[in-house]
Design a protein that fits this description.
The structure is a single chain. This protein has ten helices and eight strands. With 241 residues, the protein is of the alpha/beta class. It has a single domain, classed as Alpha-Beta Barrel (TIM Barrel). Bound molecules: pyridoxine-5'-phosphate.
Amino acid sequence: MPVLVVNVDHVATLRQARMGREPDPVTAAHLAELGGAHGIIVHLREDRRHIQDRDLALLKETVQTNLHLEMAATAEMHAIALNTRPHMVCLVPEKREELTTEGGLNLVGREQDLRAYLADIHAAGIISSLFIDADPEQIHAAKAIGAEYIEIHTGHYADALTREERMKELRKIREGIGIAQDIGLQVNLGHGLNYTNVLPFAQTPGIREYSIGHSIMARAIHVGLRQAVQEMADIIRTFVP
Ligand code: PXP
């Protein structure tokens, strides 16, 4: 059964707007779990614009499901991952000037470096995932690196302005899932997914996790976080495995 993993970065973004104590992403994670989240994701950025080190440490102590850490492949984050030992680490590209992650990681030509980067992480029993575009070359590179999972970037699909463009992106993602399955990679999806654009994946087999943040937090403002998570988890639960 595919599952929902909830990204709570936006709760920290709101807190950091006033550099205060509320709202707390740790409380949000607890509510998300009560709403049916199968895991909690945070992205600890180099510039600490939302999630702070304190959040990660407390989440590690309190998350009852699985804690996933999104991070750039830097030496600092490597040490933090080994120290924190989340369930899964997902390597993402990071640019200081971006509003949010803008695209997948480029793995081609970096296979050896990233394999070495992940060696200690794997040895510590942490599962690895690589956030990439649905590009066959990148998918094969992920396999060569030795990651267990890829997370296919759904941002281009979510941002598509025309039906034609959206269908083209959807086809690419579906083909990417097929390639990944054929070579033994597990597949997660994430970025820009919401309560409607997630529906075309209902009949697409082979997706393990949906990583969703913004649309759930946006709905939570109106209906409460627990309900917003429950509604998304209910949708995803009906999808084919
Ligand atoms: N997956 C990755 C790798 C991301 O960087 C993000 C955004 O932080 C998400 C999923 C969730 O995207 P959204 O907030 O648009 O649902």
